[in-house]
């Protein structure tokens, strides 16, 4: 039998100097930067804060049981006509009304007229985000109380 001719392994000819050069370049950039100025520190006083926590929550946030309650000062109720007036909601949010004795709320438009004789202290108003949760409810009586004109009897100019 004939022995196959083999060659001896030659030492690796990789260019270690090129690798060392890249390593020094990366190290120097890490230490000294690229010549771009660093960002100024953030002043907490200038950061805008949402007036109501949770209003701008993303859809995937599940740490809150409900969305925040609607702002009472932006809702209006007219007792003589029994009409609720709503403000425009962002995105696809919708207004909901839940009358006493109902298990679920019903959609409401930009205004909603309550049935005659309904108990406003048990009628709930809230908003809903499709595919998510609903807000904490407020009663129509609370909306009415929040919008009443000031009835102080203080006399000025004594």
Features:
3-stranded antiparallel sheet; 158 residues; alpha+beta; 2 helices
Describe this structure in words.
The chain is of the alpha+beta class and 158 residues long. The chain contains two helices and seven strands; from the N terminus they run H-E-E-E-E-E-E-E-H. Strand 3 (94-98) and strand 4 form a beta hairpin.
Helix content: 10-25%
- Written as H for each helix and E for each strand, in order along the chain, the element string is HEEEEEEEH
Number of strands: 7
Alpha plus pi helix count:
2
The amount of beta strand, in percent, is: 15-25%
- Principal-axes geometry comes out as elongated
Q: For the report, how would you describe the main beta sheet? A: 4 strands, antiparallel
| Radius of gyration from the alpha-carbon trace, in angstroms | 34 Å
Q: Would you tell me the structural class of the helices and strands?
A: alpha+beta
Give unreliable regions as ranges: 47-52
Report the mean per-residue pLDDT as an integer: 75
Strand sequence of the main sheet, in spatial order?
4-3-6-7
Distance between the termini: 130 Å
């Amino acid at each position: 039998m004939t022995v196959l001719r083999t060659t001896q392994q030659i030492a690796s000819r990789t260019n270690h100097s090129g690798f060392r050069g890249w390593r020094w370049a990366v190290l120097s950039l890490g230490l000294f930067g690229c010549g771009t100025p660093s960002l100024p520190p953030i002043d907490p006083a200038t950061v805008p804060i949402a007036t109501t926590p949770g209003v701008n929550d993303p859809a995937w946030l599940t740490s809150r049981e409900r969305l925040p309650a609607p702002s009472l000062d932006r809702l209006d109720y007219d007792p003589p006509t029994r009409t609720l007036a709503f403000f425009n909601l962002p995105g696809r949010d919708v207004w909901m009304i839940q009358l006493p004795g109902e298990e679920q709320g019903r959609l409401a438009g930009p205004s909603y007229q309550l049935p005659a004789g309904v108990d406003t202290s048990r009628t709930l108003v809230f908003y809903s985000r499709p595919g998510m949760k609903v807000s904490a409810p407020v009663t129509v009586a609370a909306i009415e109380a929040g919008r009443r004109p000031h009835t102080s009897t203080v006399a000025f100019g004594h």
